[in-house]
Amino acid sequence: MSTAEAFSDTRHRPATYADLEAVDPLLAAEIIDGELVTHPRPAPKHAAASSALGTELGDAFQRGRSGPGGWVFLGEPELHFEDDVVVPDIAAWRRERLPSFNKAFIETAPDWVCEVLSPSTERHDRGAKRRIYAEAGVTHMWILDPRAELLETFALADGRWVVGPTFDNHVEVKAAPFDAISFPLTILWPLNPAASNPDDTQNAQ
């Protein structure tokens, strides 16, 4: 086999876990539909929004201090669904469905995932990863867009995503499966002083 033929074969074969492990640790990596997908680590606004959402939901649904508890949340867990390796920004499992944590990755589908959009991830988050989550049986998915300051919600029904409510800075978030509480979307933008308080946002219009 010539060098050119070997290179072509490498480019067209499905990505393996060894390929993923060889990625520069400064990059995030996934295997989506046989393709090795890499992207930069989250920008500050992306990371801040993800952290704020995990804190808000975790306080109510993991620690049970401001809500009913009963869940476990993980940030950026590595999920293996057959040949796909995906990493949502946040995932959560009901306690009665907790996966085994004796591996570096998890094979039990979460009950909820949230993807926080960035320019480098939006195509996969809205496309192939959303399909992969549905096929794996994830029952709820949220998509958080820090640039547009919007939260979209979806629920799985008969293997397909049903569009739920979309929230902006003027509407309190109250959405399944965490509709036992409500909170202002503005708390997810801690790096944006103008949106730190719902009243400040309304007064700025």
Backbone structural class: alpha+beta
Radius of gyration: 18 Å
Segments where pLDDT lies below 50 for 5+ residues? 1-10, 196-205
Q: What is the total domain count?
A: 1
Helix coverage percent of residues? 25-40%
Q: How many H/I helices?
A: 6
Order of helices and strands: HHEEHEEEEEHHEEEEEH
Q: Note the gap between the termini.
A: 66 Å
**At the third CATH level, what is the topology name?**
tt1808, chain A
Mean pLDDT: 90
CATH H-level superfamily: tt1808, chain A
CATH structural class = Alpha Beta
The outline comes out as globular
Tell how many strands the DSSP assignment holds. Answer: 12
- Identify the CATH architecture: Alpha-Beta Complex
Give the strand content. Answer: 25-35%
The main sheet comes to: 6 strands, mixed
Q: Largest beta sheet: what is the strand line-up?
A: 3-6-7-8-9-10
What's the SSE blueprint?
Blueprint: H1 3-12, H2 17-21, E1 27-32, E2 35-40, H3 44-61, E3 71-75, E4 79-81, E5 84-86, E6 90-94, E7 112-116, H4 122-126, H5 128-136, E8 140-145, E9 150-157, E10 160-167, E11 172-173, E12 183-184, H6 198-203
Parallel strand pairs: 7-8
Antiparallel strand pairs: 1-2, 3-6, 4-5, 6-7, 8-9, 9-10, 11-12
GO molecular function, one term: endonuclease activity
Domain Putative restriction endonuclease: 16-173
Organism: Jiella sonneratiae
